[in-house]
Amino acid sequence: MSDVLQLPTLDDERHPLHALRKELNEQRQQREKIERLLQEFTTKLYAGFEYAVETALAAGVKGLHKPRRIPHPAGGWRQALQLPIEDWFVIIVPLVGAARPNVRDEARLPNARFKELSGRIALFIGDDPTGEAFYDILIFSDASWFAWGYGWPRMADAIATTDFNYLAFELLASFVKDIYTKWRVRRTKGAIEGTTQLQLALDAKKRVYTFGLPGDE
């Protein structure tokens, strides 16, 4: 009769408990590092936008308005930033947590990057709660960042060597050039959303148009 298989005990380094502890500790440390880098990037990006708008206004540029910081429900250092441009605006939001980039997003990342945890900053047009992000910035634990959306990708940049004032000017110019408005349709069969309604037409706070980006149908 063969001997009964002896499994490693809890104090044995071969026990899966130790692999579990090691993996969880490493992931926690990586998430904490990403959170610090995300805070650093967000702080510098917001300061860059505030500088860019102030400088543009001082130079006589019309159509921009002072950015507004909005408290994030998560609290702590997190804030959203609203960038008013003419009669519409962009909202920038640092998302909570860390996760792997989604392959289905088709970001032009090296394949290995899709296996790494990253922080994310999402950009939206307007304040529609159901609106989808049109631009994203990913922050990796090695202090590099990657941004893409509507044909304006930035690859393999490092936080330490980024000129955030210049980056803010680039983004603002891109927003103004590439984001367009079009009238809502008069009528869509079987649907109300997206149509021109009397209640919208008579609401001074509403704009009866929708937003689009290059390549949108």
Automatic annotation (TrEMBL):
Positions in coiled-coil regions: 17-44
Tagged with keyword Coiled coil: yes
Keywords on record: Coiled coil
Domain of life: Bacteria
Protein name: Uncharacterized protein
Organism: Candidatus Thermofonsia Clade 1 bacterium
Lineage, highest ranks first: Bacteria, Bacillati, Chloroflexota, Candidatus Thermofontia, Candidatus Thermofonsia Clade 1
